[in-house]
Write a structure and sequence with these properties.
Blueprint lengths: L16 H11 L23 E2 L11 H6 L12 H5 L9 E6 L5 E4 H6 L4 E8 L4 E11 H8 L7 E6 L21 E5 H4 L5 E6 L2 E2 L9 E3 L12 E7 L6 H5 L23 E4 L10 E2 L7 H4 L13
Parallel strand pairs: 1-4, 2-11, 5-12
Antiparallel strand pairs: 2-3, 4-5, 5-8, 6-7, 6-11, 8-9, 8-10, 12-13
Length: about 325
C-alpha cells in the first residue's frame, strides 16, 4: 500500500476519487432542489426512550444540525448536502429486516418490533470518517450481539454481511448514469466483531428516530472503524462462512480495506490519517485533532486483532 503524509488535504482529495471525477456530471441537475425534499415519507420522527450507556464518551456532542446536514449517503448523491436535501423520497415505513444464511432461526423483523423488543441505549460515540473529519454523535440503539444471539448462528458462520435497501425510484443516486458503486451497498464484519459490545444497530439519534439522511430506519454503528462501515437503511443481514465482498473494498481495494479500522499510522493513498477535523469546530485558530488508534476504543477492541498486521489488513 502506498503511504504518504501531506501536510494538508487537497479539497479534491476529501471525496473518494470515483466520486470526485463524476461530480460535475450530476451537479447540473441539483440546482432546482428545495428543502421540501427533506420531509420524510413514512415513519415520522418520534421520541425514543433509552438508558444511558457506560460506553458513551463525555466529549462535546456535535450539533444536531451538523449531524443531520453533513452526510455521506451516495444513494442520494455525492455532495455532503445531498442526503438532507433528497432523502425525503425514501419511504421508511413499512420496513422489514430479513436475517438469513447460516442461522438456526432465520427471520424477518418489522422495524417496529425490533424497537419494541430491544432495550434501547443512548451511545454517545466518536465517528471518524475516512475522509479526515469526525463528529461525536448521540446514537440510540441496541447491541448488534442481541440480534445475533436471537437468530442463533451456526458454527459454520464466520462473517455477517449487511445490505442497504435498493430502491432506484426513491434513491436518485442509484439512478445516476455515472454510478459511484455497484448497488446495493454491502458491508460486513467478522462474527466476533459483530459480537463486540460496542457494535450497535442504531434506530435513532438525539433521542428521536433516525432521519432518512442518517440511515433510517436502522443502521450499523461500529465506532472503532471508519464511517463507511456504518451501513445505512439495512434490509438484509446474512450470516456467511466467507468474507463478504463489500462495496468500497470492491470499488477501490487499495484505498478501502475490509477491516477499515481507524489507524493514524496507515494513511489513505491520497491523504494522511494522522489527524482529523472535528465538524462544528470552526475559527481561524482551530487545529486538526490527532486521530486515535481504533478511534479511541482500543481498550475494548484491540484484542480482536491480536497478531494481525494492521498495515496489510487495513
Amino acid at each position: 500500500m502506498l503511504i504518504r503524509r501531506p501536510t494538508d488535504i487537497l479539497p479534491s482529495e476529501i471525496t473518494p476519487r470515483a466520486v470526485y471525477l463524476s461530480r460535475r456530471q450530476w451537479m447540473a441537475g441539483a440546482a432546482g432542489l428545495t428543502l421540501a425534499a427533506t420531509l420524510p415519507k413514512g415513519l415520522e420522527a418520534a421520541p425514543l426512550s433509552a438508558t444511558k450507556s457506560p460506553f458513551s464518551t463525555d466529549e462535546k456532542k456535535t450539533s444536531r444540525e451538523d449531524v443531520t446536514s453533513y452526510n455521506n449517503y451516495y444513494e442520494f448523491g455525492t455532495g455532503k448536502e445531498d442526503p438532507a436535501a433528497k432523502a425525503g423520497s425514501l419511504k421508511n415505513s413499512p420496513w422489514t429486516v430479513k436475517v438469513d444464511g447460516m442461522v438456526g432461526k432465520p427471520a424477518e423483523f418489522a422495524i417496529e418490533d425490533l424497537i419494541k423488543s430491544s432495550a434501547l441505549e443512548e451511545r454517545i460515540y466518536r465517528m471518524r470518517c475516512v475522509e479526515g473529519w469526525s463528529m461525536v454523535i448521540p446514537w440510540v440503539g441496541f447491541p448488534l450481539a442481541d440480534l445475533v444471539k436471537r437468530v442463533e448462528p451456526l458454527g459454520s458462520a464466520k462473517y455477517v454481511a449487511f445490505e442497504t435497501a435498493y430502491r432506484p425510484e426513491e434513491m436518485p443516486g442509484v439512478q445516476s448514469m455515472f454510478p459511484v458503486l455497484d448497488w446495493p451497498y454491502v458491508e460486513g464484519l467478522r462474527l466476533d466483531e459483530a459480537m463486540n459490545p460496542l457494535a450497535i444497530l442504531a434506530v435513532g439519534l438525539y433521542g428521536e428516530t433516525l432521519p432518512n439522511q442518517n440511515g433510517a430506519p436502522i443502521r450499523l454503528v461500529v465506532p472503532w472503524k471508519y464511517g463507511f462501515k456504518g451501513i445505512k437503511s439495512i434490509t438484509r443481514i446474512s450470516f456467511v462462512d466467507k468474507q463478504p465482498e463489500t462495496s468500497w473494498n470492491k470499488q477501490a481495494p487499495s484505498e478501502y480495506g475490509f477491516y477499515a479500522n481507524v489507524n493514524p499510522s496507515v494513511d489513505h493513498p491520497r491523504w494522511s490519517q494522522a489527524t482529523e477535523r472535528r465538524i462544528g469546530e470552526g475559527g481561524l485558530f482551530v487545529k486538526r485533532r490527532p486521530t486515535l488508534m481504533f478511534n479511541g476504543y482500543a481498550e475494548q477492541v484491540a484484542s480482536l486483532y491480536a497478531g494481525m498486521d494492521l498495515r496489510k489488513l487495513y
